Amino acid sequence: MTSFITGLPKVELHLHIEGSLEPELMFALAERNQIAIPFHSPDEVRAAYQFHNLQSFLDIYYQGANVLIHEQDFYDLTWAYLLRCKADNVVHTEIFFDPQTHTERGIAFDIVVKGIHRALEQGRETLGISSQLIMCFLRHLDQDSAFATLSQGLSHKDKIVGVGLDSSEQGNPPEKFNAVFQQALTEGFLTVAHAGEEGPPENITNTLDLLGATRVDHGIRCVEDAALVERLVREQVPLTVCPLSNLKLKVFEDMKDHNIVELLRKGLRVTINSDDPAYFGGYMTDNFQAVADAHPMTQEEIAQFTLNAIQASFICEEEKQRLT
Ligand code: ES4
Ligand code: ZN
Questions:
Q1: Which residue minimizes the CA distance to atom 7 of ligand 1?
Q2: Contact status, residue 310 vs residue 324, Cβ threshold 8 Å
Q3: DSSP 266
Q4: Residues forming a β-bridge with 134
């Protein structure tokens, strides 16, 4: 099964580019940019990655992003991720970035987008990997800040396909961002949002009904509401599930307890993704392998994750047909 998984073409739909910052690059950028970090070696950074919930991860994740200053840093970050995509046979990827993580500390929106986009173009040309870019609003900040971020994104509509919502779900429900998502839809952006990761199933329902989301990021707590599960099957709403992330953040104690295969067998459009691979201990192949190790599946079932991801992606219908 290992060689089947390695060889399987993959499509990634849930990846925070800031979460692909490996400790080695964090160290190199800290030195290049003369930024102090509270670690002495990449191994020491890795040893600090022990999380007990989402918030304990986010605290260290935002701190890591402080080493990203120049356009070249964002390019280097994205390029390193694309090389990992190539190694994992990822043929298409839809990447999140968090503009506010950078604009809040004085890094211009344009610098961030330009660096990421230049690497994505290079990846298309030299690695044959297609991609889309999604800007996420930080849900622990207020809606005014999200509106300001949306307006900065308007001059990059040619590079940004959609908007998302991430960071602390507890206490920051989707309805807090109803108005800014309506504005984003009016501007022609597609919308997605994290929901039902740590938060209750109502967040999934409201993400669909109030934010116009075409996909739900995580969504694994849907199982607590049978009527919602029925709806997700009927409407074939994609869930971008991140197995190793859920394990690291203690959403599930053990991969054997993870519900992704149960959801697949119920007919939900579930996909496998890596979320923040540098922090959670694995890229796409590792996530597929971890699920398959804990839950015996047929090759058809494993391949279904890729077929689901193709259908759930933002690529055009002709291209979907070609990939299927
Ligand atoms: C995230 Cl795992 C996760 N959940 C919510 N927001 C995030 N941002 C980066 N990783
Ligand atoms: Zn995420």
A1: 167
A2: yes
A3: T
A4: 96, 162
21 membership: H or E segment, kind and range? none
Q: Which amino acid is at 310?
A: I
Cβ of 194 closer than 6 Å to ligand 1, yes or no, is: yes
Q: Which is nearest to 129 in space by CA: 300, 315, 272?
A: 315
Size of the chain in residues: 324
Which residues define the annotated binding site? 14, 16, 194, 275-276
Q: How far apart are CA 315 and CA 222, in angstroms?
A: 26
CB 222 within 8 A of CB 196: yes
Helix (H, G, I), strand (E, B) or coil at 10: strand
Tens digits of residue pLDDT in 225-247: 999 999 999 999 999 999 999 99
Q: What is the DSSP letter of 126?
A: I
Structure tokens belonging to residue 286:
């590792």
| Structural contact between residues 282 and 290, judged by C-beta atoms closer than 8 angstroms | yes
What separation in Å is there between the alpha carbon of 7 and the centre of ligand 2? Answer: 25
Sketch out the chain's domains with CATH numbers: 2-23+71-323 (3.20.20.140)
Single-letter amino acid code for the residue at 202: E
Give this prediction's pTM.
Answer: 0.98
